Amino acid sequence: MRRIPSSTMRMTRLFVPTLALALALALPSVPPLTAQETAAPPAEAAPAAVGSLSPRVLDAYRAAMAARQAGVFGVYRERVAEALDLEPGHPLLLLHMARACALHGDTLQAGDWLLRTAATGVRIDLSAEPDLAVLRGTPSWTTAAGLVALHAAPEGLAETVARIDEPDYMPEGIAADPVTGDIFVGSLHLRKIVRLSADGAARDFVPAGRDGLDSVVGLKVDADRRLLWACSGASVQMRGGTPADSSRTGLYAFDLDSGRTVTRVMLSDTTRSQFLNDCCLGRDGDVYATDSMQGGVYVLRAGTGRFETVVEPGVLVGSNGIVLSDDGRRLYVTEYALGIAVIDLPTGDIARLQHPEEIAICYADGLLWHQGSLIVVQNDRGLDRVARLYLDDTGLRVVGMTVLAARLPGFDEPTTATLAGGACLFVANSELNRFGPGGRLRPVEPRRDFLIMRTPLQ
Questions:
Q1: For the purposes of burial, counting CB atoms within 10 Å of the CB of 353, is it exposed (0-12), middle (13-18) or buried (19 or more)?
Q2: Which of 373, 429, 411 is closest to 157 using CA atoms?
Q3: Which residue among 28, 267, 425, 446 is least crowded, i.e. fewest CB within 10 A of its CB?
Q4: Domain residue spans in the chain?
Q5: Would you say the CATH fold of 155-456 matches that of 2-152?
Q6: Cis before residue 414, ω within 30 degrees of 0?
Q7: Of residues 370, 364, 377, the one with CA closest to residue 421
Q8: In whole angstroms, what is the distance from residue 301 CA to residue 281 CA?
């Protein structure tokens, strides 16, 4: 494990169907910039407002793809540059800029953009980049290939501490009880929650579908109140799920000792698809939750039994992991597509978490707060890793990173994490890539256990 201060790295360099559908218009030979593939501004920029950027990025990207399709490569480069102005440092946009420069005949700039892309750590299949063939054999190509190989290697340390041997469990959320040491893991497919005890035994904590439980995603333990909070939503990925169920979602609270359902509060609007994906707890018992389908954030006030809107639907894109700062002032929310948004609760202001270009914070699913830093679980484009992001005193800027565990044996799309005993526990192999069209679950051979791993905090 290593800490990577940004000063030493500088080079010359699931749930948003509308955006994803629009981006499907891209050329088949160009990996589409999906709703899971945009990023936040670099550290040098002023805090950027969030909310109106994503449609503009999409428009610029679609215009770029149209220009590329038409062979107007100068316009292709201009439109990618426009998208990068709105979303500086995004790895896939950097790669598109390398392609655009190469197609426009600017080999020197193409090499520079390729190096900047490779420095982010995202996976690049250089053998499948015909637009960049002009760079083959150049120093930029050779250096980029070395960086790609370096970032593809396993990194960090983690050990397996628990297993789930149900082949179709499809785990997503995880939480730990600091009192008993028990670990709770929810199933996206089987609509239940298991308790993993210290002896390694896995037992049903909440049976499948009890009290209307649907796909289980984010989990959080309220140890003081002896509650396990769970985000649940109907999805085509759950057993028996259909698209017609997609508006049903809410929060459940279960008694930590008995598993009894204590609270069930659903979003009342049933006219649109919505999905509460992850949650976090305030000290007063409030529960904040993200809606990945609509891009909103809600809070369930303690004792009220009703949701209040923190961020209106449509303001964020693919809002997912969520955590509250220690002082209770700020919410950090991963927009899987757009890096991490920072919400100032007293004012309602929203800014992007700034970061050096080479510290990619996109593709973040799970999110935790630890001693003034953020623990993120990233799971796409070769970034499969658990990393610690160090923040400056303002809490608005990433100044360094430690990769705790990345691309280790057993990893297969890690999702979320929890803190326990001075370490980070996480779902190492969700295998969510087994879900095919319409939520159909593909079998896997040979059968593998789902792994809960632990990595020490640095």
A1: buried
A2: 411
A3: 446
A4: 2-152, 155-456
A5: no
A6: no
A7: 370
A8: 10
How many whole angstroms separate alpha carbon 424 and alpha carbon 161? 11
pLDDT at res. 307: 96
List the structure tokens of 11. Answer: 């080079």
> Distance between CA atoms of 144 and 118, rounded to whole angstroms?
6
Buried b (16+ CB within 10 A) or exposed e, 205-244: bbebebeebbbbbbbbbbeeebbbbbbbbbbbbbbebeee
User: Which pTM was predicted?
Assistant: 0.87
Residues in the chain: 458
Q: How far apart are CA 211 and CA 255, in angstroms?
A: 14
Question: Which positions ≥6 away from 74 have C-beta within 8 Å?
Answer: 104
State the 10-residue block means of pLDDT for the chain, 458 residues long. Answer: 32 30 30 32 41 69 94 96 85 94 96 97 94 95 96 95 93 96 96 91 94 96 97 92 87 97 93 94 96 94 93 89 96 88 94 90 94 96 95 95 96 95 95 90 89 93
**Angle, nearest 10°, between helix axes 73-86 and 91-103?**
160
> What CATH number labels 2-152?
1.25.40
Q: Which two tokens stand for residue 201?
A: 């035994």
Q: Rounded to 5, what percent of the chain is helix, strand, coil?
A: 20, 35, 45
User: Amino acid letter at 405?
Assistant: A
CATH class of the 155-456 domain in this structure: mainly beta
The whole-angstrom separation of Cα 163 and Cα 197 is 11
